[in-house]
Task: structure prediction
Amino acid sequence: MSGESHAADRTVSGESHAADRAVSGESHAADRAVSGESHAADRAVSGESFNPFSLAGRTVLVTGASSGIGRQTAIGCAAMGARLVITGRDAARLGETCAALQGEGHRSIAADMAEPDGLARVAEEAGVIDGLVNCAGITAMAPFRMTSEKHIRRIHGINFDAPILLTQKLLAARRIANGASLVYVTSTTAHIGTFATGIYAASKGALIPALRALALEVGAKQKIRANCISPGYVQTPMLDALNAGTASIEANYDLAPLGLGQPEDVANAAVFLLSDASRWITRSTLMVDGGLTVHVSI
Result:
């Protein structure tokens, strides 16, 4: 009886395994078919409508938008579908930037963010934003032996205090949407230091660790990202003003293998960091300098 039982068991077992293999084969075939359809659908969506660099449906606040990198960043964001809120001290030039933006629904806020009232007004009138690009800043060359407390306070007040306080006010008022991206324009000088720019370098360099800490605070739950861009020498009114001073820096342009940059080079980097194309990037600093600092350990 035992022999017959084992024989019957083996027969049943063989049939069961055969059935399992058949079912498994059908299941894997079905999985492959579904997978193929899914990938095909993904490719179709990608080919027809998906653009990881698109900013469509997003509101982006750009500071320092009246000229230079800030102006070009606003133009670039609008070209990628964003609705812009731009701010700067010069109302006339800010209006010119606004007129150059593609699309509709853009707003401008003329304000001096070095002043508490101006800072508060920008934070209040900006509304809820999906992206922030802090481009506002100033520079002035001064060797240490000629540096004054007034110079230090002025440079730090605009380059560091203003963007940090604006961010704080927006966060406190819940004006930064979940999943937003925050971008802060610093400088290669913050990493390497250049002649007579110690205070400027310090004001820009201070943003980098501050934003790394911020990204930890808002990343896990709110999925808000924070990154910096460190441009090299870029053709802007600020650079022109430096060269018009007592110490021209034109000779330094040749130190970058790709030469002098243009505002759109930095603006394109900002669009990248604002978009879903960089969704897994935070607490980072993107060097946009034409290769200027590649030989320096940073």
